[in-house]
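User: Hey, my collaborator sent me this sequence without any context and asked if I could get a structure. I don't really work with proteins. Can you help?
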Amino acid sequence: MTSLPDDLQPAEFIRHARQLRALVDQLRGTPLLAVDTESNSLYAYYEQVCLIQLSTREKDWIVDPLALDDLSPLGDVLGDPATEIVFHAAEYDIVSLKRDFGFHFGRVFDTMMAARICGWEQVGLGSILESQFGVRAAKHFQRANWAIRPLPPDQLLYAQMDTHYLPALRDILSDELAALGRTEEAQEIFAALPDLPAAHYEFDPEGYWNIGGVQKMPRHLVAIARELYLTRDEIARRRDQPAFKIFTDKALVELAMLQPRHLADLDTARSLTGRKARRYGDAILQAVARGKDAPPPQPPRRRTPDQAVLARYDVLRAWRKQRALDRGVESDVILPRETLWILARQAPQRLEDLDDIPGLGPWRRAEYGAELIELLRGMSDET
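Assistant: No problem. I've predicted the 3D structure and written it out in structure-token form, which is a compact way to encode the shape of the chain:
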């Protein structure tokens, strides 16, 4: 980390219940609170929030949820509609905090989404900190294990920087949104964020079909890939590690193609390190043997939209792309892809038919509704 202000004070580290109570008392009624999280997704089977960073305009805190039994008092602050909660890329933090602590949120301002609405080319927090505040983050901490304790001071400083500048960034973007006449658009998008569902992971036993290369395999090899996939998940769950840390999708496909019978055969698998071959070799060979004896699995039946729906979707997507080019923003700033599919399936013909379409709030209906109805009516006339 370079070019930090000389008067920057270290964040207060909250790891005791009495500290949390004092923090919550201090934050009650605060008009603005920046929030970020750090998780251990690269190091655990089920990820969890390992740090919660908080900043007002005056001070920074880092809350250690691994040391605290009850974070519900903090949830009261986050859910208070009198307090605007500022995130950068809000979705991940919101769904993770809901999953782990049952938090709810009142008012939200997402600086990444605001930057995208404004047409900023670089919207990652690291790039913005450097361009707006002259601060360069140590990127290697992006892959750090945030569950370790104690956390080294430079890692805590990295975490602190994720919220320290968000109040000032929020002000910069709020002014730019107002200057561009995009405040109402942004508020409409922000208003949907607190309703995001909690994150949820459930292992999909049919997920091997989504691994690149599996669908092109002969069916008898797919049976081996399936057993390797199931074995990998079982090992990962037992060792509390992400599945890719056991062996990668690339290694899974290569092993299915090789059909190894002996441990020595694993030496020819370029995608599998010798260390992993030694550690998991027996389990891999057993999985391959089971796959050879198993009946070939049938691919899942995928529902394909009818041609009229596909045609409408293509027209809507082309319209969205042109609208985005005209504004200098990414296409999903105009409308989410899911909203395009709903429009393509339902083919509404009147403006009032748009009222219940997800992703089409009052601002978007007023801005785009007439164009959308004209497009969809035109396609109906053609058919």
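In plain terms: The mean pLDDT is 95. You can pass these tokens on to your collaborator as they are.
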